[in-house]
Amino acid sequence: MESQSPTPAPMEERILACAEQLFVERGFAATNMSDIAANVGINRPTLHYYFRTKEKLFQAVLGRILLSFIPRVYDIISRSDLPVVRRIEQVVDAYIGIFMSKPCLPLFMAREIQRDPAFLVEMARREQIDHYVHKIMRALQSEMEQGKLKKVPLLTVFYTFYGLLAFPFLTRKLAETFLPEGENFAETVGRWKQQVVRQVGTLLSMDSLTGQTSGR
Question: Has residue 3 got a pLDDT over 90?
């Protein structure tokens, strides 16, 4: 069983919740400790008592966001008893759920990757997020070696999955101007989900490879 992080104290939880909202909406560079303190309703010395620097607070916020769904993604992917398409569908559902509840999150992640990728790598190590990432990579690699999944470079899997999944959310404001009358973004994403599942499933499923071979 994986160890669980201790539950934050009430004040720490308030700080993390307010900081998350501001960081995700504005990004690291445009968010300052004074704004966070004001949103929490405390002064800066009190904020610094809990988090000495903006970097430490940002690390805690980012770790909190990623750990809210990365373990769930690993649990799904590790279910080798489930068909790959079913697992892909569940992972896509998990991501769509968090992206719909945190609409600024995809842009926030893209922005922070560009701003300081070294910081993200170090943060992932400190928050043990890389532990889950490596487990996910090993699980996929193992199934490829066992012949349960097609042998595909993991970077190709990464680009295909996140490219298909994140782009609609990154372009949401533009896409909403083209939606048919009476349709909302959630309905569009629901349809797009089937495309993501189909394309990633085709990339990984041995059944699709068998179908291609038999059809020649």
Answer: no
**69-116 per-position pLDDT tens digit:** 999 999 999 998 999 999 999 999 999 999 999 999 999 999 999 988
- DSSP string across 124-171: HHHTTHHHHHHHHHHHHHHHHHTTSB----HHHHHHHHHHHHHHHHHT
Residue with tokens 């104290």, as numbered in its chain:
9
What is the torsional sign of CA 78, 84, 88, 89? negative
43 is written with which tokens?
């002064």
Non-local (6+) Cβ contacts of 40 within 8 A are: 14, 15, 18, 47
Q: Is the dihedral of CA 64, 69, 73, 75 positive or negative?
A: positive
Residue 195 C-beta-side C-alpha neighbours within 13 Å: 13
Q: Model-level pTM greater than 0.90?
A: no
Print burial letters for 12-45: b (CB count within 10 Å at least 16), e (below 16): eebbbebbbbbbbeebbeebeeeebbeebebeee
